[in-house]
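[STRUCTURE TOKENS]
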Amino acid sequence: MNKIVEKLRSSGGISDSELKLLIECKSPEVAEFLRKNADEVRQLHYGKKVYLRGLIEISSYCKNNCYYCGIRRSNSSAHRYRLTCEEILGCAENGYKLGFRTFVLQGGEDAYFTDELLCPLISEIKRRHPDCAVTLSLGERSEESYRLLREAGADRYLLRHETADEELYRMLHPTPMSLENRKKCLYTLKKLGYQVGSGFMVGVPFQTTEHLIADLRFLQELRPHMIGIGPFIPHRDTAFSVEEAGELNLTLRLLAILRLMFPTALIPATTALGTIAPNGRELGLQNGCNVVMPNLSPVAVRKKYDLYDGKICTGEEAAECRVCLENRIKSVGYEVEISRGDAIDLYK
């Protein structure tokens, strides 16, 4: 098995059958060898740097009805809110003072946030903080919308494909949502010059190893700058409420595999990883991750952005969260990097 890891590290190319063996291998020795190689590769390209992204959750309204999501349209128990432009600018101002140089505006697919509202907002954030990057994570939009947001100053866009398998996608999403349109959006974003992020859930109901291999192959085709994966965590008000959460060790193996397949990608140690294990984010960093995304949203709304049960970091003040995370990062031998943190392959 170690020879498969070495082959993956040296060439990035292994067969589907070899990937299957690696994904399904539960040997602690192999896991440690995989982790060691992933950590060496991320340090080769990024050193010990861990980039901070300030997450601003702007809306818990969503037009979609994804079967796994706590803010799905039909969940009448969800607590809805929208931040005003002034509140969003205030979050960015606070984050800048705390040392953040990337702001991630994330929300459900909320028709309230039109191009007419978002474009001046993005431009104002960039005017006030010209040394910062603005990342958007607002779902599927038209090519014209993506173009206008890019022209307003948006640098990056996060849009997880969730699963690259058509059949599984239909089992997780109702019509009219489609994997075809999701992929089309991702390629459109790349065409328009965004730094693009995609990714998938680990351990979602009905998922097989073959589905995970399809995800990895799609990412090889897309070649995103950022890759975000995290364990599936059920939400009490969804059809999957009684399902088991995704496995920590499987998620860590996949993170390490991703680092070896995409040596220069920006890969976050996600909040979901920290939710299923107290030291989940630290373990993510040790398995190839190099990004963390502390929450800059107003404390009063954090519990309302309720994608899954048990979400951490819903009560701390931003400053407290920042200090806590920096200490956690240092505890496993890494260091916080205060910069925009662009993917290094953009400069080749």
User: Anything to note?
Assistant: The chain has one domain: 28-339.
